[in-house]
Amino acid sequence: MKVLVYGSLNIDMIFSVDHVVRPGETISSKSLTRSAGGKGANQAAALAKAGLSVYAAGKTGADGRFLPELLRSYGVNTENIVEYAGATGQAIIQLDKNRQNSIVVYGGGNGAITMEEITRTLAGFGQGDIILLQNEIVLLREIITGAKRRGLAVYFNPSPYDRAIEDLPLDMVDMFFVNEIEGAALAAPPEAESRGPDTLPAILDRLVSRFPHAEIILTAGEKGAWYGCGEIREKADVVEVEVADTVGAGDTFTGYFIAARARRFSVSQALAIACKAAAITVSRAGAMEAIPLAGEVFAC
Fold first, then answer.
1. Could you tell me the residue ranges of all domains in the chain?
2. What does pTM read for this prediction?
C-alpha cells in the first residue's frame, strides 16, 4: 500500500508575539523562525515518520527547494513535487504567549497545479493505495474523481473549510478528518433547513448521517477525538502535556491515525495512538520537525 499526499507545501514564517495583532495595531515580535510547513507537507512527514510508504505531490518555487529536501530526509518520495518559476506558498503565523496561533496563508505554487501534473502523478497509483487531500490546493474535484477512477481510497481533511467544499464530489470520500469547526460546518450544508445542537456527539451523528459510506474522525483539541461510521462510535481522550506549540498537531494526528489503522490497530487504539502522537508534537516547538518518530509513539 502506498499513500499519496497531494497537498500544500509552504514556507512558514512564525512570529512570537504577546497577543495576536488587532486591526490597526502594530506590535513587536520577540522572535522570527522560518520553517517548512503546509498541511500537505506536514501530513506527508507524519505518515513517513510513522513508518508508511509515502509519496508527496505538489508545487514549489525555487525559494522552497528546501521543502522536498527535508521531506526526503524523513523518507518521503518527492518525485511528484514540481518546481515552477513562481513563489512557494507562504504562511504568516502569529504565535501568542499562550502558545495559540493565528495564520495567514498565500497559496503560491499550491494554486498553480495543472491537470497535466495531476494526470501524471495519479498514473503511478492504483487499487489498494490511498490519497490524502486537504483544502489548500486547486483542482480538488479533478484529483478526487481521477483518484477514484484509479481505485484509490480518498481521505480528505477539508481544512481550511469554505463553502466551495460543498461543490466537491464529497460522496467519493472514504474518510474525513475534521476538527470541531470544520465538522460543524460540514454537518450543516447551506441547503439544510434546521440542525441540532452543536455538541460534539451531535456533530458526529450528523456527519455520519450525511456521509453514510464514509468514516468520520472528529478532533476537538483538549476535548479529545471521536470516530463515527454507521452505528460505531469511539472516543479517545487527549494526552495532557505542557504545550510549547500547537502548529502541526492536527496533521500529526491525521498521519498517525492512518498509520495505526494500516498496522491493523483497532479504531479505539488508533485514536489513542494519534492523540499520543499529537501530544508529543505540541510539547515541542516547530511543525514538521516536532512530529515524533514511530518508535516514540508505537513503543509500549
1. 3-298
2. 0.92
